[in-house]
């Protein structure tokens, strides 16, 4: 995210706005600063807010992101847990993690 004269601009990982396969999306390693899980969670939230992932879309597997970034699976798990806490995604055993409607109630 860059700010110039009070205007916030988001730098997207993808080079085009139409993602044909959301499973190919992954957080940008170069943008990870500070607490890794929170930085990844922020990038996932940004992708949802920008419409790269819409309600009902399946996110890439945690293992795929861990492998692509070279981080431990527990780090990615913590990032997904944080995004779920923010009310943007919901994980289902053996099905995957999906974007939910903004403001939809989440139950543990």
Automatic annotation (TrEMBL):
UniProt cross-references to Pfam families, sorted A to Z: GntR
CDD domains: WHTH_GntR (cd07377)
InterPro entries associated with the record: HTH_trans_reg/aminotransferase (IPR051446), Tscrpt_reg_HTH_GntR (IPR000524), WH-like_DNA-bd_sf (IPR036388), WH_DNA-bd_sf (IPR036390)
Keywords of the record: DNA-binding, Pyridoxal phosphate, Transcription, Transcription regulation
Top-level taxonomic group: Bacteria
Protein's UniProt keywords contain Transcription regulation: yes
Residue span, HTH gntR-type domain: 34-102
One GO MF term attached to the UniProt entry: DNA-binding transcription factor activity
Gene3D superfamilies: Winged helix-like DNA-binding domain superfamily/Winged helix DNA-binding domain (1.10.10.10)
Protein name: Bacterial regulatory s, gntR family protein
